[in-house]
Every structure is written in structure tokens, then in C-alpha cells.
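Example record for the data management plan.
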Amino acid sequence: MTQRINYMQQSPDFFKKLMSLSNAEKESSIEEKILHLVHIKASQMNGCGFCLDMHVKQAKIHGESELRLYHLSIWRESTLFSPRERAALAWTEILTRLPEHGVSDDVYNRVREQLSEKEISDLTFSVMDINAWNRINVAFKTVPGSSDAAFGLTKAGLS
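Corresponding structural encoding:
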């Protein structure tokens, strides 16, 4: 396998700015539990092993049940997710894989039934953020679990 570059070293200013966006999520109007689901779902869709690994561990540390994590890939069929969580997951999916003709009024209106304008806006930035991280970690093949110690993820008991 070809050794990929270390994007943090090569573009430290961009890395810091993306980290700032991620850190701003702590002030989001969207609760942490939903943000974990959003990060995991987008990472599944984008095939980002590093981010999927990290966000599953974070969710577990913050009390997410293993069964809900297993059901995330089938959230539409599962009874384990609230209407609010379903709206966030639908918004995540539509923004992660933008349809040719954009986001339909139908999808927007279904999400709007569960989330306020501020929450939709905050969620949109969160989806943008995780998609950026997914793309950079997929591009440079960041190894899943390689930052567990640095991020305190060994507490998840999944390493």
C-alpha cells in the first residue's frame, strides 16, 4: 500500500480551522446523542473507516446502546429511533449524497416538522463538518483506531 501524506502536517492552518468547526458543535442546538448518530451515519455512507471507528467509540462512551449502533444502518425499519432522530438521519443522508435536483420540499418539510430553523441550520453545519472529515480521512487512508489514545477513545472498551 502506498504511504499517504499526513494532512495535519502539510496543511496545519486548514486542519486547525476544520477542528474549530468541529469544536463549535459543542454549542450546537442539536443534542450530542443525535450528533453521534449523524457522524456515524455519514461515515458509513462515505466508507470512512477512521471516522466510523472514532464516532462509534465516542457514542459508546457517551452512553449510546450497542443495539442502536447496530440498527443505525437500518434506521428506517428500526423502532429504536425517535421522530427527531429520524429527521436528523434523513437530513444527513440527503446532504451526504445530494440528489441531482437538490433537496425536495417533501424531505425539507418532513425534517422541519421535527426540527426548528436553528436546529436545521446547526445540523447542516454538522453534516458538512463530518463529510469534510470523511473525505480527507478517506483520501489519505487514515488508519482506524490510530488516534484512540490521543482522543481518549480507549475508554470505550472496543479497541
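Summary line stored alongside the record: Residues 13 and 98 are 28 Å apart (CA to CA).
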